[in-house]
Amino acid sequence: MQQSEDQYAQPYLRISDLSKEFGVFTALQGVSLDIYDGEFVCFLGPSGCGKTTLLRAIAGLDIQTTGRIEQGGLDISALPPSERDFGIVFQSYALFPNLSVARNVAYGLENRGMKRAAIQSRVDELLSVVDLADQADKYPAQLSGGQQQRVALARALAPSPGLLLLDEPLSALDAKVRVHLRSEIKDLQHRLGVTTVMVTHDQEEALTMADRIVVMNEGRVEQIGTPEAIYGNPSSAFVADFIGTMNFIPVEPAGAGQVQLGDTRLTLPDSVGIEAGRFNLAIRPEDIAVWAPELGDDNRLEVQVSNLEFLGSFVRATLELPGNAAPVRADLSINLMRDLELRPGGRLSIVLPREHLHVYPD
Amino acid sequence: MTASASVTAHAGRVQPKLGRDDWMMRAFMGVIALYLLATLALPLYTMLSKSVEDGDGAFIGLANYTQYFSTPALFHSIYNSLFISIVTTLITTTLAFVFAYALTRSCMPFKGAFKVIAMVPILVPSLLPGIALIYLFGNQGMLKGLLFGHSIYGPIGIIIAEVFYTLPHALLIIVTALSIADARLYEASTVLRATTLRTFFTVTLPGARYGLISAGFVVFTLVITDFGVPKVVGGQYNVLALDIYKQVIGQQNFQMGAVVGVVLLIPAVAAFMVDRLVQRRQVALLSARSVPYTPSRSPVFDWAMMGYCALISVFILGMLGVCQYAALVKFWPYNLTLGLSNYAFDLMDGGGWDSYFNSIRMALYTAAFGTGVVFLGAYMVEKSRGFHTGRGVFQFFAMMPMAVPGMVLGLAYIFFFNNPNNPLNFLYGTMGILVICTITHFYTVAHLTAVTALKQMDPEFEAVSSSLKQPFYRTLTRVTVPVCLPAILDISIYLFVNAMTTVSAVVFLYGPDTALASVAVLNMDDAGDIAPAAAMGMMIFYTNAAARLIHGLLTRGIHARTQAWRTR
Questions:
Q1: Residue A33: phi, psi to the nearest 5?
Q2: How many CB atoms lie under 10 A from the CB of residue A273?
Q3: Residue B182, Cβ neighbours under 10 Å: how many?
Q4: Packing angle between helix B205-225 and helix B155-179, nearest 10 degrees?
Q5: CB contact, 8 Å: A87 with chain B?
Q6: A88: which strand partners?
Q7: Closest residue of chain A to B474, computed from CA coordinates
Q8: CB-nearest partner of A141 from B3, B19, B567
Q9: Residue B298: DSSP 8-state
Q10: Range A142-150, long-range pairs (CB < 8 A, 24+ positions)
Q11: Pick from A33, A80, A141: CB nearest B18
Q12: With left for phi above 0 and alpha for psi between -120 and 50, is residue A28 left, alpha or beta?
């Protein structure tokens, strides 16, 4: 299902059947995934899902209990961090407080037989890449959070590592700085072409920055895919619920490709096959359409509007379905609202377009 | 989900390969653990085995203990020791609590001065308050009448001097406990219209209870293990720590000394373990997010508190003043002209001026080597990767010295190092053994200071450094040590001051060329040269005060120079 697999023959980083136990607690369970050269991959999941544990295993900071990690074709499973090839940025940045910005960036270049002038020019180069050339002599404490974050990035990139690991690098920042830095980091990564793994619990961050997202839950991989695939075609109820907003509607199976919701029979997309048992029908709020003649009468429902929540560019409507089903949320544009003159308590005719329907076992 | 398709089974557990850093750090930790093994565990073991041997080294089971417990003159000391320790604990904790309450909850003036004065007893050997009491209440004392015929030699004198000696230790702990008070609780109490008294019993005391308990145990341990005060002012009143000295130095009965050592070890270890349990709870209180309490003005209360603190300060400074006066008086109480004749230490028994300079050398060595050993050890425990068992064992070793009384440690050293078969025997009687013994004796507090400082550093520094392919010792010297410099200075001044004042462990270990000032105070007092003993005690005080001053200036200098990068 990934195009990237066809483009690159060999994965740069191959993780096979990784498990990690802390005493009786299992933090990772049978995790396998491939990351390709130059990719930007996000590990996304709720706190405690194992994403940071996985990153620390890749770095060699907390080595896995069982399983194998290969980087660039070499088995690095048991190597200490100092014998692996990566740069890392932590949530705290871990900048050395008593060293100037320039000395921080130079830290990984010293002691390697590099000439002083070469180190200096590499430091200058990196500081201008992260746009901090004029801050070289300041101490970390004298910089803003966003600037500190960029210093940490420059320090990690200075020795030109093959792999860049980012552990929640943006979560300590203000919302505005965070949005700005997202595109900046993404740009930088694209320009340098360094394979990057970022851990985040922020789905917006993952969706906007990643080439591919690894959604994790309770120590397991739930789904791997492009942001579009993850959002548009979540493979499990967990992913559907965790990424974006999703309505879940309990339904009964009703013959080939159809389900029963109260008195209404709904048609599913052809790709979905269902077995016997109880199901949840899932649809995103923005995919619910207000009925219009050109939409036809398939999957049409009559609902009552119980609440309208103004959210700026759109209105989130709470709709009571026929029968005893829980209400669903639908996002309606402001223009449409004006045309419909909708009020709480009013009635509305909607369509659940079959191509946007997902089905998950209850 | 292509990923799951490429699963290959790897059943075996991954054995992490150790990098060069890991090996070096473990080797360092191993060396320091060996050091603690040789300077603490093995000597203690030797002492334990001595207590079940006869004079010729043959195993005789518990015969020595049977003899001990059938000799009333000996086992009565247990009762005496417990009595003075418990009474002192109650008095000191109460006095320190009110003092700490005044410092943290009142708006009295001169808080800074009172705080400094209350810390003064830390800078003098415990022998000194005993000497002061002799001049005040002894047979020819200035204020003898105040005792209404009671003798200062005995429990009264011991308890007064021990209160002086233990007050700063209790005060430090209780001030910390009271400073973490949450203002919101007091606001809630006011809003609920509780009386001041009720607020005190329902908010203040419960909040400080762990601090009070901890202070109580610290005082108890200090008193029961102290040897200086009973030596000077104890008279015929025997206590455990003094019995060890008498058995070993007076009667050369090493086996019985070992038995008393074991008996003394029991309450010290018990108090230590209870205190550790209590402190673990205190941490939970500290981590709560609270609004700091700021006292508001209340003239009557503030003046009362100032009066109280002034009284305690007069007591402390008075004891020192008496000693200094006694040191300058030609011949108390017959010739009251002032002069320096009592400073002619070379004319008395005890080691003369050499002992003073030996003490300074010993304290400097202890501060320098001790700080290095302790900080490196703490660094290895805190920052090495994996190796949990080894780190646990090391941590245990590092905590042990706190529970071992100085007299017991000193005695254990005689048994261990004086054995001609011991390859370390060459250390016996040298400056080296004094330094080693003193470092070990005061290891725990220094270790805890280092650990606290290291815990405040970002735990990812080491991870970042290894990702940048830098060896750990480079990060240690370039980042960790500079950032921890204030704590490192604190450790070195702590070791210096204690090395200057300690008597208990080193009294068994000094040689003809390595007499120490604190031991000279003891020996001159023993020989009846009380005024020169007071003079030497005051020399120790001035030296420690000067060291403290230098330490304060250095710390201030570091803070000024590093202000640019220190956010705290």
A1: -165, 155
A2: 9
A3: 17
A4: 140
A5: yes
A6: A165
A7: A111
A8: B567
A9: -
A10: A142/B564, A142/B565, A143/A101, A144/A177, A145/A172, A145/A173, A145/A174, A145/A177, A146/A173, A146/A177, A146/A180, A146/A181, A148/A93, A148/A95, A149/A89, A149/A93, A149/A173, A149/A181, A150/A181, A150/A184
A11: A80
A12: beta
Select from B10, B12, B17 the Cβ nearest to the Cβ of A79.
Answer: B17
B354 phi, psi to nearest 5 deg? -55, -40
CB-nearest partner of A139 from B6, B8, B564? B564
**How many Å is the Cα radius of gyration of chain B?**
26
Nearest to A163 by CA among A7, A58, A82, A20: A58
pTM: 0.87
Looking at beta carbons, which residues of chain A come within 8 Å of B7? Answer: 16-17, 30, 32
Q: What average pLDDT does this structure show over B286-312?
A: 83
The ipTM, to two decimals, is 0.83
Inter-chain CB proximity A81 and B466 less than 8 Å:
yes
Q: List pLDDT tens digits, range B80-137.
A: 999 999 999 999 999 999 999 999 999 999 999 999 999 999 999 999 999 999 999 9
Q: Which of B464, B466, B488 to mutate to test the interface with A (most CBs of A within 10 A)?
A: B464
If phi > 0 it is left, if psi is from -120 to 50 it is alpha, else beta; for residue B386 that is left
Contacts of B3 in chain A (CB under 8 A): 32-34, 221, 224
User: 């180190």: which residue's tokens?
Assistant: A119
Amino acid identity, position A253 = P
- What values do phi and psi take at A87, rounded to 5? -115, 150
Give the whole-angstrom CA distance, residue B456 versus residue B445.
Answer: 17
- The minimal CB distance from A108 to the residues B3, B13, B470 is found for B470
B-chain residue closest to A21, CA distance: B13
Q: Residues B106-121: pLDDT tens digits? A: 999 999 999 999 999 9
CB pair distance less than 8 Å for A99 and B567: no
Asked if B568 is an interface residue toward chain A (Cβ–Cβ < 8 A), one would say no
Q: Average pLDDT, whole number, for chain B?
A: 89
A window 235-264, beta carbon within 8 A of B: 235
| Residue the block writes with tokens 């308050």 | B129
Distance from the A107 Cα atom to the nearest Cα atom in chain B, whole angstroms = 7
DSSP designation for B328: H
CB environment A96-112: b (16+ within 10 A), e (fewer): bbbbbbbbbbbbbbeee
pLDDT in tens, A168-206: 999 888 888 899 899 999 999 999 999 999 999 999 999
**Residues of chain B contacting residue A33, judged by C-beta atoms under 8 Å apart:** 3
